[in-house]
Amino acid sequence: MRIEVDGHGVEVGEGASVLDAVRAAGVWLPLLCHDDRLSPVGSCRTCLVRAGGIVTVACVTPASPRTQVETAGEELEALRRDAVELLVSALPQRALEETRSELAVVCTRLGIGAEAALGAGERGGDDSHPYVRLDRDLCIACDRCVRICADVQGTFALTLVGRGADTVVAPGTGGPWADSDCVACGACVDTCPTGAIFQPGLPLGAPASRSLPPGTATTRTTCGYCGVGCSLDVVTADGQVTAVLPDRDGPVNRGHACVKGRFAHGFLTSPDRLTQPLLRRDGRLEPTSWDEALDHVARGLRAALSEGGPDAVAAISSARATNEENYLVQKFMRTVIGTNNIDNCSRLCHSPSAAGLTASFGLPGGTDSFDDIDQSDCLLVVGANPVDAHPVVGARLLRRALRGAALIVADPRAVGLAGYADVHLRPRPGTNVALCHGIAHVLLAEELTDEQFLHERAAGLPELVDMLKEYTPQAAAAITGVPAADIVAAARLYGRARCPAIIYGLGVTEHLHGTDGVRALANLAILRGTVGTDHGLGLYPLRGQNNVQGASDMGALPDSLPGYHKVTDPAARARAEHVWGAPVPERPGLRIPQMFAAAREGRLRALWIIGEDVCSTDPSSNQVTAALDTCPLVVSQDIFLSSTARRADVVLPAASWLEKDGTFVNFDRRFQRVRPTVEPPGQARTDFHIVQAIASALGADLGCPTPAAALDECARVSPHFAGLSHQRLDREGALPWPCPYPDQPGQAKLYTRHFATPDGRAHLAAVPYLPPGEQPDDTYPLLLVTGRRLTHYNTGSMTRRTDNLLLDPVDHLDIHPDDAARHHLRDGRPVTVESRHGHARLTVRIGTQTPPGQVFCAIHFPASGVNALTSDHADTVTSCPEYKVTAVRLVP
């Protein structure tokens, strides 16, 4: 519609406000209670205009056709100035003298000086939190922090207290900020217009106004923690990172962040950083030169090749490394060494996703863009705790639920979203397949399926229908422990929704039958006809590490070339050989567990481990350490001297994600740029340069002189990536794959015309429920589930070297009060956890989040020995470990 602003016509959309029209006309107005991420409230009354002859607040006044808006004139300017001066009058003069805040900018533009600030400045503050501080003297009670905490983060940690002019923000729990419900996302800092809420290291108010001090630089990059793929602006000065701010235009995070991506960058300058190569001499790791380290690696690789052939060498690539680095590693193994013995840590987490999604739909990635989640009216969240593990995703899901979308949470624990769920299904660990089948049974029985979709675009329905006869809600309830009525209620919510979506995590995949779990979930989406159609969303696998998706996309897998083209496919090998100018072995290589077994048996004679602490992360860790101790050459490439590095023969110092150039792929298949913000410390090098150097030490030339060149070459190897390049990403921003053409956008929503399976149909799977690898008994009566917590990441090698350790200093064992009483355990006391495979020592935390008969702990404190507890049971299709079901007993 057309609006006239100061005599000039502008076009705005339906539902626009007068403020939108004023902005479209290029007119500035003071805004102190307004944030574009929040619904307008008009409480500060500083954006006054005349609309239709009436003085009104622009941000809350709807625009209507043919409205005439006036912004200029002495009267309006005086009213706006008076409104701002009233707010300023209660503040001390430093509110304008010592900040780079929005308020200071507004006052400068209105000609209001520090003399207008008359407050005494005696309200106090709160500096108890390591990352977020409060100066109440600067608070104008605009409510932005309270609203952004509730509406964007969904934590509800803040409130306003006091009355009248004494109203100020405070933690909702009433005590110190550090003891509140705050999750340290920093959203309150980003929105505060005065600097009342601030972060140490930045001028007051700088994040909200984006007015940074002289001498600082800002680099846009992609977060290197979880797989959400948040876009971040990294602030540096004098070669050091001083702050990390969420990109307001970030395609996934939309100006939001979490405690890890935003604040946990202190590890960069940790004194523990590896800054020079180490070489084992007489049983001890000692500093050495790069030349000597590379020469030792080259001689060890030549010896392994001479004694056992190409398959005596293996490499574990990194889900933390860039796409270009993973691409180069797998190319090195295939063309220089001559083996497909290359794998990455997706083997430990999401390999069942790749296998299950490929079998069901044809490609090993999520089916839809996360942007579309805002259209969903029903969220089925299975085996995932995004509030802790993927906080930005968790916040958006909670926001959808608070705005009316039905929420179904399927998880044994009362995880973050469960408290807001319409239905919380709490299956026994290891029974996901039976639960999904019970829901599918109801969908069919109550005709909540898309018959046309099933007829035209799906296969396997008769076999599934026949199998599901055995999975009535009552039968599923007997297996899972979930009441039949809850199974029916969940099925009806999902089945009757206009646009349902499925979000799942490692609670689905890390099982003996994890691939079956993914396929059983896919069945639900196929039955509802939500994949590749405009009346629903399919499946979103939440990736644990920043580049789990990309490492596999790039071919760091024993059976797949870049783009998931099988090494057994002659045409795929021929295409790669043409680009690489070297033969590609046709027999699939070893998976990670097979590498360790081969090392223990003496068949594997050289193992190169990049950015992974396998002694801390992999199951049955005693067997892993035995493999490393047996293997003649172990090379560890990392940023810290991990448990794995301590057992290596050569340790190579690597760069972190904040020191790299390249790309990552996030959980919904988006390629995003990664840019170096600071130089690596000492002699540390990027993984890209280290791979090149090892190839050169063997007399080989991998080509690809730069990361940009590596992605260009990968685009020639796989049609999925043919339209991608650094130049295009720099120009256009994030792009999803498949992206086969440089002049067309990638496919954010897959399968709109046909599926990528051989017959072009989605495949239903009649996979029966099979029990997990372990069951509790009288000796080991409890089931242990492992996972993540909010403040830490994986083995904690980065986050435990930051102030995050102040927020979460010890590893807890969560246990229900009934079990605590039964085992004579007290809160906060140490406990030994024993399994059939090993033992660990943790600290008891009693609560009701974990149900009776189960205990939970995280994986962030390797010294606790948690992975010594886990078994060698693994998914029968992909060898993904069964981390989610371990029978244990407790010894006080």
What descriptive keywords fit this protein?
alpha/beta; Rossmann fold; 7-stranded mixed sheet; Ubiquitin-like (UB roll)
State the separation between the terminal residues, measured CA to CA.
71 Å
Give the C-alpha Rg: 28 Å
Strand content: 15-25%
The major pleated sheet works out as: 7 strands, mixed
Structural class call reads: alpha/beta
Q: What order do the strands of the largest sheet run in, or round the barrel if closed?
A: 15-14-28-27-26-16-17
The CATH topology annotation of the largest domain reads as: Rossmann fold
Can you count the beta strands?
38
Low-pLDDT ranges: none
Relative helix content: 25-40%
**What is the number of domains?**
5
Task: Explain how this protein is built.
It contains 30 helices and 38 strands. It has 892 residues and is α/β, with parallel strands linked by helices. A hairpin with a 2-residue loop joins strand 3 and strand 4. The mean pLDDT is 95.
Provide a quick synopsis of the model.
The protein has 892 residues and is α/β, with parallel strands linked by helices. It contains 30 helices and 38 strands.
Describe the SSE topology.
Elements: E1 2-5, E2 8-11, H1 18-24, E3 48-51, E4 54-57, E5 68-70, H2 74-89, H3 94-97, H4 102-110, E6 125-126, E7 133-135, H5 144-153, E8 158-161, E9 168-171, H6 187-191, E10 197-198, H7 206-209, E11 217-222, E12 231-237, E13 240-246, H8 259-263, E14 278-281, E15 284-287, H9 290-308, E16 313-316, H10 323-337, E17 342-343, H11 351-361, E18 378-382, H12 386-389, H13 391-402, E19 406-410, E20 423-425, H14 432-445, H15 451-457, E21 458-459, H16 461-468, H17 473-480, H18 484-496, E22 500-504, H19 506-509, H20 514-528, E23 539-541, H21 548-553, E24 560-561, E25 565-566, H22 570-580, H23 592-600, E26 606-610, H24 614-617, H25 621-630, E27 633-638, E28 650-653, E29 662-665, E30 670-674, H26 687-697, H27 707-717, H28 726-732, E31 735-736, E32 762-763, E33 782-787, H29 804-807, E34 812-815, H30 817-822, E35 830-835, E36 839-846, E37 854-858, E38 886-891
Parallel strand pairs: 1-5, 16-17, 16-26, 18-19, 18-22, 19-20, 21-32, 22-23, 26-27, 27-28, 33-37, 34-36
Antiparallel strand pairs: 1-2, 3-4, 3-5, 6-7, 7-10, 8-9, 11-12, 12-13, 14-15, 14-28, 24-25, 29-30, 30-31, 33-38, 34-37, 35-36, 35-38
Helix pairs in contact: 9-26, 10-26, 10-27, 11-20, 14-17, 14-18, 14-20, 17-18, 23-25
